[in-house]
Design a protein that fits this description.
63% of the residues lie in helices and 0% in strands. The N and C termini lie far apart (57 Å).
């Protein structure tokens, strides 16, 4: 029976019976619980990031910049919390991890559909990742939708165009030239200037998250292959130079 507001308890509202029963280690080893909790928590934070991203994209599309800044600032704060969580995971030593690694099978963080959706909705749209999710699955459908609808990057570019900036063929060079005009006259284009800074905040935080991820993986498994067959740390290192808004960095 669903509790009514009058009789609602903390546990009822947060569905704690479901939430706290979702951690089910496959070994008897103490440290597997930490591994599960860290990754489940990241997925919850990514769910919130997607919630904020969809709102921010819609607001930017409507030129409601001040409201969009709040959602974007929240995304950056969530990213900071997620980056700090790697420090907790790094208390897991290589010896501890190798004792239960076999129970993970072929599961891997590389398979996180929410992380790929975040990349798509931010503006990193590599359609190759679709093949990792089964046709007809909800993960595939969400990613397809993110691939086909405007990302935060695309919404920002459209906002530039609506303000009269010539973005040409939308090449990095043309976009950099348009943003340069914004920065050179920040008082006139203050809303776009603030938007650009919020975009860089998100990109900066994502780069920090990737860097800390690499360090944590190297610390725990060295250069071993990932559980899902990925190249492990070497693959993660190859992502460090990814930027969602390269024209702003330039």
């Amino acid at each position: 029976m669903t509790a009514t507001p009058a009789g609602m308890t903390y546990a009822d509202y947060l569905k704690l019976d479901t939430l706290l029963s979702a951690q089910q280690p496959l070994s008897v080893l103490h440290d597997e619980m930490l591994f599960i909790v860290i990754h489940q928590t990241k997925e919850l934070w990514m769910k919130q990031m997607l919630h904020e991203l969809r709102l921010a994209i819609g607001l930017v599309n409507e030129d409601r910049f001040a409201e969009a800044y709040k959602a974007m600032a929240r995304i950056s704060r969530i990213q900071a919390v997620m980056t700090l969580s790697w420090d907790v995971l790094s208390t897991l030593t290589p010896v501890d991890y190798m004792k239960f690694r076999h129970v993970l099978g072929t599961s891997s963080g590389f398979q996180s559909a929410q992380f790929r959706e975040i990349e798509y909705r931010l503006g990193l749209k590599d359609p190759a990742y679709l093949q990792h999710y089964a046709e007809g699955s909800s993960e595939r459908a969400n990613l397809q939708d993110a691939l086909e609808t405007a990302s935060l990057r695309e919404a920002a570019i459209a906002a530039l165009e609506r303000s009269g900036f010539d973005v040409g063929d939308r090449s990095p060079e043309a976009l950099a030239a348009a943003w340069l005009q914004v920065y050179r006259d920040a008082e006139r284009w203050f809303e776009l200037y603030e938007l650009a800074e919020k975009l860089v905040d998100i990109d900066d935080a994502l780069a920090a998250w990737r860097h800390k991820h690499v360090l944590t993986v190297e610390r725990i498994i060295g250069n071993k292959r990932g559980t899902g067959g990925s190249e492990g740390a070497s693959y993660l290192r190859s992502t460090l130079d990814k930027r969602i808004f390269p024209e702003l960095w330039s």
